[in-house]
């Protein structure tokens, strides 16, 4: 991803990819894998969360205040949903809603949230 984005840095793709998943640790446990890149391919590995897109400035503050370690799937969904809806309401380029993916060991839950459509 980084190479493709950097190669097009003077005529960039206007995307900010986020890659998430679960990876096995050396002791056999599972931990989240969170990676994001900007539109020219500068990457960021995160331990807690990343934000991307046109509403990222509004999202960052909300996520920073609402995030806490070791949240369960339901609480994570609520925090993500409320953060997205609040940020989208403050950003004219964002709209319609979002898909929220909750990734757990052996299971991925996808839920749609509806936002404003103006």
From TrEMBL:
Where are the membrane-spanning stretches? none
A GO cellular component entry from the record: cytoplasm
Which InterPro entries is this protein grouped with?
Ntn_hydrolases_N, Proteasome_sua/b, Proteasome_suB-type
PROSITE patterns linked: PROTEASOME_BETA_2
An individual GO BP term: proteasomal protein catabolic process
Looking up Pfam families in the UniProt record yields: Proteasome (PF00227)
Q: Where is the signal peptide?
A: none
Protein name according to UniProt:
Proteasome subunit beta type-3
Protein's organism: Paramoeba aestuarina
